Amino acid sequence: MSTPDEAELCYPHLGNSSCRRIVRSHSVSVLLHIILSSISVLTVTLNLLVIISISHFRKLHTPTNFLLLSLAVSDFSVGFVWVFMIFLIDGCWFLGADWCVFNTVLSYVVPSASIGTVVLISVDRYVAVCDPMHYQTKVTKNRANICIVLCWAGSTVFHTVMLKDNIEHPGGFDSCAGECTVYLPPFAGVIDLIFSFIIPISIIVVLYVRVFMVAVSQAQAMRSHVTVVTLQSSLKVNRSELKAARALGVVVVVFLMCLTPLYIVSLTSGFGVKSFSSYIFVVGLVFFNSLLNPVIYVFLYPWFRKCVKCVFSLQILKSGSSEANIL
Fold first, then answer.
1. For 80, phi and psi rounded to 5 degrees?
2. Where are the transmembrane segments (predicted)?
């Protein structure tokens, strides 16, 4: 029979070399497991619907939607990261050093790819709204796909280098048994802050401020009827593009709100050795954004609601369903 002190240890048989678990009442522990498990299942399911919708229906094969597809893939991956977070509810890591490294790399690469994708979305909306006459030639499907591949490859390589010490020495920075520690050298933390937060966020804000200014000026022009006949067609294009920009703007704003606290905590607490469990809230907020994105699509994109109906009614299995006009 274990003593009270042993019950608080992740590995009671290791004594003082074991980390201490976070002791909670049984009801609270069960509630947390239910909440996190539900978030994980919903995140995987909803983003899988986005992936199936955009991949299946040809009418949705546009550069903008390919960027949404990339974002959905990263959000889908986050659904599995939630599973690892469930193991850290009590502050103990039981999956071993190798899985800790895998979780660490995945936890950095996936959000970084999301940040890069949001930057690409901002560039896409900037060109569509501010240079609509050349949008079709500047932003093509092939170019969008190439940018997406480069985004994911760059994110993977960048964070593999940043986390090199963790990869080469699994468990080498744990202070006790049952810990999953993330180590970033101070200079690496600063580089990560600059390239994963400051530069991307600056680009996103600058581009969307420009898009907002164009939207305001066009709204004023349409209200005052100050339009030229030769510009009427381009204004029609802009109205649809502005509508898309507003919808994606909601995605961008929610993304920034979920991402910013993580880097504020990093700045205020400094860089170096960090226990993953100590970052559980702000990291969880970043990952929770992956559930919010498809929820936003439900409210802002009629085509997504139609696609969901097609999937659940199994119409998607019918021959020629990929050619259906769901726009």
1. -80, -25
2. 30-54, 66-89, 101-123, 144-163, 193-216, 244-264, 276-300
Tens digit of each residue's pLDDT (9 = 90 or more) over 12-59 = 877 788 888 877 788 888 888 888 888 889 999 999 999 998 998 888
**Tokens matching residue 249:** 């703007």
- Phi/psi for 274 (5° steps) reads -130, 130
**What is the rounded distance in angstroms from the CA atom of residue 98 to the CA atom of residue 295?**
34
Q: How many helices (H) and strands (E) does the chain have?
A: 12, 2
Sign of the CA dihedral with 84 first, then 89, 93, and 94 last: negative
- Report helix, strand or coil for 182: strand
Q: How is the chain split into domains, by residue range?
A: 4-323
**CA dist., res. 289 & res. 293, Å (int):** 6
What CATH homologous superfamily does 4-323 map to? Answer: Rhodopsin 7-helix transmembrane proteins (1.20.1070.10)
Contacts of 216 (CB under 8 A, 6+ apart): none
Residue percentage of the chain with pLDDT more than 70 = 84
The CA-atom distances, in angstroms, between 108 and each of 46, 86, 87 are: 22, 17, 18
Token output for 103: 């979780």
Q: Is residue 131 within a helix (H) or strand (E), and if so which, with residue range?
A: none
Distance CA 86, CA 246 (A): 35
CA 128 from centre of chain: 23
Taking the whole predicted model, whether its pTM rises above 0.90 is answered as no
Q: Position of tokens 């890069």?
A: 116
Instruction: With beta carbons less than 8 A apart as the criterion, state whether 113 and 74 touch.
Output: yes
Residue with tokens 């539900």: 38
